[in-house]
Design brief:
The complex is a heterodimer. Chain A is mostly beta strands. Helix content of chain A is 10%, strand content 32%. Chain B contains four helices and 35 strands. Classes of the chains: A mainly beta, B mainly beta. At the A-B interface, helix 1, strand 1 and strand 3 of A face loops of B.
Amino acid sequence: MKPGLRYFAALGLCLSVTPALGETDFPVWDQHGAAKRPYIFTQQHNAVIQSDTEAPAQLIRLGYPLQVQLPGNPALWTFQPEESHHVEYLGRTMVYSPNRIAGTESILVFDLALSADAADGTEGQFTFKTEELPASLENVVPDGIYVVRFQVIDPD
Amino acid sequence: MLRRDFLRSAGAATALAAGGQSLGISQALAQPGDRLRDLPELRSGSGGIKTQLIMENGRFQVGERVLTMPAYRFAHMDTGSLPGPTLRVRPGDRVEWDLVNRMRPTGYPDGATDAQKAMFDQLEYTNVHVHGLQVSPKPGHDNVYQVLRPFCTPEPYTYDIPGPDTGRAQPSGMFWYHPHKHGSTTHQAWQGLSGAIIVEGEIDEVPEIRDIRERVIVLNGLLVNPAGEVPRAAIVPNAGFSPFTPIPSQPTDILLTMNGQLRPVIDIQPGEVQRWRFLNAAPHRFFWLDLEGHEFYQIGQDGIPFAAPRPVKRLLMAPGNRAEFLVKGGAPGTYRLHAELYEQGHPGGARPGWVIGTVEVAGPTRDDPIPSRLVEPPRMPDLPIAKRRTIHFKGEISGNEKAGEYVGSHDHSPGPRPPVQFYLDGKVFALNRIDQKVLGGTVEEWTLVNEDVFQHPFHIHVNPFQVVAVNGQPTCDDTWWDVIALPSRGQLTVRMYFRPDIDGKTVYHCHILPHEDNGMMANLYIYPPGTDMENPPEIPDTPEPIGWVPCAS
């Protein structure tokens, strides 16, 4: 089984043994007036590098923003709408970050949101690709393909 | 309030609702704009003190949030304190405490299975380090290899603080205690587990200082999820205000607090001089302190006093640093206390500036004096340099590297690849690899080479040091440090005197604690004077921890 499928299988197994996604398992996060911060994903969240045992399910609560941060420049990461589901692409910024990761000068920051039809139990994913993968990312993002799979939960 | 007046009993600033065990809200005086609280204190009696240092979960109001996390308390306190209570001692004291671990896990990611939860059991394993105290690192003392699991038998620690009879007394100033279990140090620091240790001595009798208002101020960086808990997961760095994200991801926020409060207010009169003792107990954030319209008159660094006050506009505090200074109230008004924007090398650029508090100058005008002389600081012994060493610092944050020694990013061989790794001399920490062997009673010079843009703060246990060169250029600075930030892609040379009366195995490491926990720590063995260093005695292995689960729950 390919690593990505292994991860997805692990995700499915994990979810299949999880009882109802109710308040007992996912108590509401009281925001206490604070702004909702995003779920942030970096290259280390790439699904294809996660082993079965180390791949906890990525659950995302309705109403929270998403953000993907990938090292780049000169590598340019692009959102793949055909290989992304139940997310909306909101835009990209580039943050100067030289000398942190070899072969990259910046962090590309992508803002995403769950799509309007996302609901409790919805399974989705987002995919980014690059054709200029630096050697320093060859193992963590093999072939320049970055994928995060998730399931939506609604504690309310 | 005069310093002598507020040497209060422990617990004065806590316990609005008793019962940390029952998760009552322990501190409710934490709204922005509240007056800066004084932390609870415990003072040693004649010759020392004996107590318990208890860690247990509580709920703490910080701003508009209620946080659920463990906190320290001493035995006689009803509830924990965020940050922990202050201990006041004197050179020559014996401090004995039993560390009691009653921490319970919090911060699980949504949907975590029992197996995944078990992967992070060790985040409640702990011990305690007395940072900056020149005491024995051996078992039963300042032993950072000790592992205390939750609800197991309390672990006794004894610290004999060097007195004048040793010929080299512990300097009088600000030190601190915090957990130091390799692998869980960061998590527990994100929870604010830290407390000040004040060693009182000669500088406290300087006439211009003796009776002025003193404030002990602990800076924390609390990384919390929307539930007000520290995420229980591997974390990786990211750009943005909240500097780390867990795997799997959880939304996080970073709360920069003073004595557990968001943006408190400090009162001072025009012309009044106050003594502020600042500790940066945050595991990652540098604080570049700046008070609008005021100068600081620094009187000590890392617990070691100066010969005379040094006027400075801003003070840089790397994680682990302490700075003690005098502040003289200016014209009536309100002034912001900043942590200035600072480029410490984190991914995504400079850490943003942040107002951490305000100072309100009001009331009758005074004209308190600033002293011109303080005390005679410790001197570096006039000894030849016994040995010179070079230590290399390098981090790897791509997630691309195999676990273990640094081999470079082109290695495609199979094996686990940790999300991040940090290396000293190309190696991650190993419990029973002795990286440096030194001889007590000697002076050495270490050149610390930083291959990164991350400004790794170098820290060594037991003995402080002086900086003698920056990027090879000599300095003329007699300041003593126990933590100092290395310049980005630069180097420092430090000179250390290994006091002859303390031997044993201890560590040096980066005090950005996510770096330390991910490998950037190494072992140092100090042999007693007289040891034949050409043929030194074998060093026994440190036992691996026994047992891997809490003793009860």
